[in-house]
Specification:
heterodimer, A: 115 residues, mainly beta, 0% helix, globular, B: 114 residues, 6-stranded mixed sheet, 5-stranded antiparallel sheet
Chain lengths: 115, 114
């Protein structure tokens, strides 16, 4: 089956620093990758959609300069949280899809804690 | 844009009983409706999905029904077991021009009491 990995699984950083999260599709080519954030006991909120080789499409209310997304290859997308603050602490999950009609395969998530 | 509402927010059932979770969506052009199960701190896992050209789909103890006219779909779990306890999310894919992005419901915490 389709496998998506995420790294790191957990990160703790100081306020003001930047954190990069990687999302990889291990056994298929992901034309589209999605980034979600999930607060405790809440639903998944889509942050942005990224297509390989093009700029990400951000959802309304998501700061593109704060959450930098790069989808440089068909198997790798990165999310960089710049100048992180405690309110950015959350569970970040990526997903990958092989085509417009395929299901999304989710990564295991990254728990970000900003002190 | 698409809006997905999910009910109930919590559901407690006795082991062996059935559980039903309902979702409504707003975009009549939505054509893909997956259901995910998420355990604490884990990734969402697809348990069943249905496309708009089908009214019902079943996989062992799990079934999903879709009413396109009323714009609602439901998850049915029969003979519930303690390991079914988790958070369940419905989702819908809005119009194709937005790609296959998913809009999620708020989630239902299912507790199966043994």
């Amino acid at each position: 089956g389709a496998v998506v990995s995420q790294h790191p699984s957990r990160v703790i950083c100081k306020s003001g620093t930047s954190v990069k999260i990687e999302c990889r599709s291990l056994d298929f080519q992901a034309t589209t990758m999605f980034w979600y954030r999930q607060f405790p006991k809440k639903s998944l909120m889509l942050m942005a959609t990224s297509n390989e080789g093009s700029k990400a499409t951000y959802e309304q209310g998501v700061e593109k300069d704060k959450f930098l997304i790069n989808h440089a290859s068909l198997t790798l997308s990165t999310l960089t949280v710049t100048s992180a603050h405690p309110e950015d602490s959350s569970f970040y999950i990526c997903s990958a899809s092989g085509s417009r009609d395929d299901e999304q395969f989710f990564g295991p998530g990254t728990r970000l804690t900003v002190l | 844009g698409e809006n997905v509402e999910q009910h109930p927010s919590t559901l407690s059932v006795q082991e062996g009983d059935s559980a039903v979770i309902k979702c409504t969506y707003s975009d009549s052009a939505s054509n893909y409706f997956p259901w995910y199960k998420q355990e604490l701190g884990k990734r969402p896992q697809l348990i069943i999905d249905i496309r708009s050209n089908v009214g019902e789909k079943k996989d062992q103890r799990i079934a999903v029904t879709l009413n396109k006219t009323a714009k609602h779909f439901s998850l049915h779990i029969t003979e519930t077991q303690p390991e079914d306890s988790a958070v369940y999310f419905c989702a819908a894919t809005p119009h194709k021009e937005y790609g296959n992005k998913l809009v999620f419901g708020a989630g239902t915490i299912l507790r199966v009491k043994s």
